Amino acid sequence: MELKQMYTHLATYNRWANNRLYQACALLDTAAYYQNRSAFFGSIHGTLNHILLADRIWMARFTGKVYPFNALSDELYDALPSLQHARQAEDDRILAFVQTLAVEAIVTDISYANSQDIPYQQPLWQGLTHFFNHQTHHRGQVHQMLGEANLTPPGLDMVMMFRETTSLPASPST
After folding, report:
1. C-alpha closest to that of 72 among 112, 124, 116
2. In a designed cystine with 11, which of 16, 93, 95, 173 is the match (CB 3.0 to 4.6 A)?
3. For residue 145, what pLDDT is reported?
4. CA-CA-CA-CA torsion for 79, 83, 85, 86, nearest 10 degrees?
5. Contact (CB, 8 A) for 46 and 81
6. Tell me, what's the pLDDT at 168?
């Protein structure tokens, strides 16, 4: 399987998983959604905001830009509906970005500064791999918090998406 195809699958999975997670979050009452819990970014709301913020920061890095922010805990949106709308738009942007990548670009270095303004240079594929792994990491935290809120969390296993999606190949090509 080519790297571009793999990242397209990861972007498709990312959109699918976020959609399922946000649908579950919409079932929560306001207090449960905003309740401070034992997570890096406090609440379900704080964690969802962080994921979107980090996605925007990394997408800017991938395209040679800078996304301004004060802290990794910045609140981009104060309510679930506006956050969900922005999440869907970002997921569409991510998928479009990876679909238009040239294979050569995936192995080309990108340069950026991290949140402490330390400069880095690394292949785009390393940044993309971290990008999708980071989203999965924090979605797992939200998944756990949904259970703490007495809501059955949705299944987010990637294999579920592959089973549900007929547009993806059953096996990778060589």
Report:
1. 116
2. 95
3. 97
4. 150
5. no
6. 53
What is the per-residue pLDDT for 165?
81
The answer to whether position 170 is within a domain reads no
| CATH number of domain containing 17 | 1.20.120.450
CA angle 147, 55, 60 (to 5 degrees): 175
Q: How far is CA 58 from CA 55, 143, 167, in A?
A: 5, 23, 27
Please give the structure tokens belonging to residue 96: 């479009």
Print burial letters for 14-29: b (CB count within 10 Å at least 16), e (below 16).
Answer: bbbbbebbbebbeebe
How far is the first Cα of the chain from the last one, in angstroms, to the nearest whole number?
Answer: 6
Sorted by sequence, the CB contacts under 8 Å of residue 156 that are 6+ apart come out as: 17, 20, 21, 139, 140, 143
Position 156 in a domain: yes
What is the longest distance spanned by two Cα atoms in the chain? 50
DSSP assignment, residue 152? P
Q: Please give the Cα distance from 116 to 3 (Å, whole number).
A: 30
| pLDDT tier at 174, thresholds 50, 70, 90 | very low
DSSP SS3 for 156 = coil
Q: How far apart are CA 142 and CA 45, in angstroms?
A: 9
In a domain, 171, yes or no: no
